[in-house]
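Researcher: Here's the sequence for the chain we discussed earlier.
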Amino acid sequence: MNNVEPGLLGFLIVAAIGVALVFLLISMNKQFKKLGPPPEESSEENDEGTADRGLDADIGDPAAKGAKRR
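Model: Thanks. This is the structure I predict for it:
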């Protein structure tokens, strides 16, 4: 009867992958913190623009997409 188990080597490989994952998540969080929020001026302009024309105002309007009318 063959009894095959992962043993110590399998555990060490899984543990190494877990440790690498933790370091990658820490690094990713640092990079996201460097990005920061967008400047206040551009977010206000975007809010005003979408409020005036609606989010999907140009859907179905061929002139808005640059299509030629026949």
